[in-house]
Automatic annotation (TrEMBL):
Pfam families: AAA_5 (PF07728). InterPro entries: AAA+_ATPase, ATPase_dyneun-rel_AAA, CbbQ/NirQ/NorQ/GpvN, ClpA/B, P-loop_NTPase. Residues 51-197 form the AAA+ ATPase domain. Belongs to the CbbQ/NirQ/NorQ/GpvN family. Transmembrane segments: none annotated. SMART domains: AAA. This is AAA+ ATPase domain-containing protein.
């Protein structure tokens, strides 16, 4: 089912969101196109957001989770505020912080809004990247904005913020990576989960043409084959998932425009790995393709 085949009530919800931001032109909105063999991924994300649901994008690094979030922002014409989580992500990184300012010689304390409060008050999208990298004690702050209440009592100011109707949350997660922690079930249950698989085949060719500087058809074919062969090694446990990252592949394709492709593979993929045997496995595969 194409987007044009969506039920009329969903299409009305989409149009209502687009009209809400038809006047708004901000650098947060970009022209991005998410590509996937599974056409239902984008459609299901659109439906969920139109219904006021939060969506959680699950997939390996470089699979296009951020690109999907950007494409959704562009589709709705709705600005998006981002949080990149890490072990250092705390309440201030999410909500904002207090600072002392000078006004006509007098000092006062102002509150600088963080991405969560900005998105709530403006009715924009909030994108939380690597949500399972944040400290577990930080994330419960988000519970009340992710359920039917759509509100937050700011512990830094005691203000109560009620999100605008168009406010929506998109989060992304890489499971099993170093530094990540299992998501609390109460938090995960507040999301609609969408799996983002690796891009392969003809779709990957289109991604390379769209995202990289490489235009040599034969070499693009070789890099698509490289990606496929690396995935086989990942599934066999010989090399880690990051070796098959589409993001790393795009970087490598860019380098291959200006250097020998085998050297580009070393710089863009194999040298990022820790184990010598893993590096050797990647180089051996690449050597059979780029003679």
């Amino acid at each position: 089912m194409n987007l044009v085949d969506l039920p009329s009530d969903i299409q009305n919800m989409i149009e209502k969101r687009k009209r809400a931001f038809s006047y708004y032109h901000e650098e947060l909105i970009g022209e991005h196109r998410f590509l996937s063999e599974d056409q239902t991924i984008f459609q299901d994300a659109v439906i969920a957001l139109s219904l006021g649901k939060n969506i959680l994008l699950k997939g390996p690094t470089g699979s296009g989770k951020t690109r999907l979030a950007e494409s959704l922002s562009s589709f709705f014409g709705q600005p998006m505020h981002s949080v990149n989580c890490s072990v250092d992500t705390d309440m201030e990184a999410l909500l904002g912080f207090k600072t002392i300012t000078q006004n006509d010689g007098a000092s006062r304390i102002d509150f600088i809004q963080g991405p969560v409060i900005k998105a709530m008050e403006k009715g924009h999208f909030l994108y939380i990247d690597e949500i399972n990298m944040a400290k577990p004690e930080t994330l419960p702050l988000l519970n009340s904005i992710l359920d039917y209440r759509r509100m937050l009592t700011n512990p830094l100011t005691t203000d109560v913020i009620q999100a605008k109707e168009t406010f929506g949350v998109i989060a992304a997660i890489n499971e099993g990576y170093v530094g990540t922690v299992p998501m609390n079930e109460a938090l995960k249950n507040r999301f609609i989960v969408i799996d983002i698989p690796y891009v392969q085949g003809e779709i990957l060719k289109d991604v390379i043409k769209q995202e990289s500087k490489l235009h040599d058809e034969k070499m693009i074919e070789q890099f698509v084959r490289l990606s496929s062969d690396l995935l086989v090694q990942v599934k066999s446990g010989i090399i880690p998932e990051e070796a098959a990252s589409i993001r790393a592949l795009i970087d490598t394709c860019d380098l291959a425009v200006y250097m020998d492709p085998l050297r580009a593979v070393r710089r863009g993929i194999s040298d990022k790995l820790e184990e010598e045997r893993e590096k050797a496995a990647v180089v051996n595969i690449a050597s059979t393709l780029f003679k």
